[in-house]
Amino acid sequence: MSLEVLERTENLSFELSEDQQMIRDSVRDFAERHIAPDVMDRDHNKSFPHEIVKMLADQGLLGIYHDEKYGGAGFDTVSFCLAIEEIARWDASLALTVASHTSLGSGHIALAGSHEQKQKYLTPLARGEKLGAWCLTEPGSGSDASGMKTTAVKQGDHWIINGSKIFITQGSVGDVYVVLAKTDPTLGTKGISAFIVERTMDGVKPGPPMHKLGMNSSDTTEVVFENVKIPLDNLLGELGKGFIDTMKVLDGGRIGIGALSIGIARGALEESMKYAKERKQFGKSIGDFQAIEHKMVNMAVEIDAARLLVHRAAWRKDRGKSYTKEASMAKLFASELSERAALDAIQIHGGYGYTKEYHVERFLRDSKLMTIGEGTSEIQRLILARILKNEMGYNE
Q1: DSSP one-letter code for 141
Q2: DSSP annotation string for 9-58
Q3: Closest to 204 (Cα-Cα) out of 225, 221, 180
Q4: Calpha distance 68→85 (Å, rounded)
Q5: Looking at residue 43, what is its pLDDT?
Q6: What angle separates helix 18-30 from helix 77-88, to the nearest 10 degrees?
Q7: Cα–Cα dist 114/380, whole Å
Q8: Max alpha carbon distance in the chain (Å)?
Q9: What is the mean pLDDT of each run of 10 residues along the chain (396 residues)?
């Protein structure tokens, strides 16, 4: 093996560290004891699990990879992925709350915030004393962020924000928002800036929870900003650099969505194997029929492949390497897998899988968001096509 190859592979390991194993095992135990028992009731009642979120905060999971000096637990992104997977195995809604709070809301402040902003806002967010929300999408702009209408106008010693955001996770239960707004509408994406807004500020108006296909116990609302006055110091990052930072935040967020998708797919597989062992047809367990075996094997292989993609992206992020391509690949493959796995799980369960008496029906409803949120599958393919063409010199 050449020296060059050795240098490229010497840090590659498929074994989890002791800390990573500890995170995985402790969150798995917590999920089985505190998350799994009432997950169906929370889904049916569309109730936000305030008490469980508080328990997760007490264990440091709402700031798991943030800097310890700002209230975080100081673990790595792989540990974050392991935790999200274990939570999503039982409750994707709860995993979405943790992932969006950590990667998007507080994640943007960790990325672009000043020391003072991190002390004031990131510390209580990382400790879980407050919940964060990230406000990018608008009724008329989703994938095309340049089409946003929300504005921030400088007036004296304040910014005045006007506009509305839609599909905001933690929209009504969040305490601190990161809001993307146009500070110079003539510059397109180069005229977008980010701001820290507190929910208690005058003019901030969260809407009621939205009725959704799935993720029922995750809080999703519209948030309207009417002449919201914020201090000049609440500009997050550099003026006009909000879109650039947003792309970086989304790269990290896609790793979390990938881990969440794996949790859903793993739940689909484990529930299917349990059911296939117990369900008898023609005198034997349906899990002994080759058609069922093949479905479960395919699920298992793709889950392992998705986990490797997600952990590779997380590994690169932790080492300060570029990871846009890896995050998009992981998000694309894992999110589409979660749908396939949930559909196969319902097929294995037969008529029972179509009822709300079994988890797999909920897995399918929850999985659909994975291919939409934080960049649709179509957007991931656009990103990857652009990177691939550039790497291959396609446009030269």
Answers
A1: B
A2: HTT--SSPPHHHHHHHHHHHHHIIIIISTTHHHHHHHT---HHHHHHHHH
A3: 225
A4: 23
A5: 98
A6: 20
A7: 31
A8: 80
A9: 41 86 98 98 98 97 97 97 98 98 97 98 98 97 88 97 98 98 95 98 97 98 98 98 97 98 98 98 97 98 98 96 98 98 98 97 98 96 97 85
How much is the pLDDT for 12? Answer: 63
Predicted pLDDT at 146: 79
In angstroms, how far is the first alpha carbon of the chain from the final one?
A: 33
> So which residues are the catalytic ones?
374
Q: Which residues pair with 76 in a beta bridge?
A: none
- The three-state secondary structure class of 158 is strand
- DSSP letter for 100, please: I
What single DSSP character describes residue 121?
I
Q: In 3D, which of 263, 287, 234, 289 has the Cα closest to residue 112?
A: 234
pLDDT for residue 276: 98
Query: In 3D, which of 132, 154, 136 has the Cα closest to residue 144?
Result: 136
Q: How far is CA 82 from the centre of its chain?
A: 13
Phi, psi of 209 (to 5 degrees): -55, 140
Which secondary structure element, helix H or strand E, spans residue 376, and what is its range? none
Whole-number Å distance between alpha carbons of 98 and 106? 11
Half-sphere exposure of 231 (CA within 13 A, CB side): 4
Q: In 3-state terms, what secondary structure has residue 153?
A: strand
How far apart CA 103 and CA 331 sit, in angstroms, is: 14
* Distance in angstroms (rounded) separating the CA atoms of residues 169 and 218: 7
Per DSSP, what are the bridge partners of residue 161?
Answer: 152, 228
What does the alpha-carbon distance between residue 371 and residue 261 come to, in Å, rounded to a whole number? 9
Q: How many CB atoms lie within 10 A of CB 114?
A: 13
The closest of 215, 195, 196 to 257, measured between CA atoms, is 215
Please list the residues that pair with 229 across neighbouring strands. 160
Task: Give the residue carrying structure tokens 């790595």.
Answer: 76
In sequence order, the 6+-apart residues with CB closer than 8 A to the CB of 53 are 62, 94, 97, 98, 128, 131
Does the reported pTM lie above 0.85?
Answer: yes
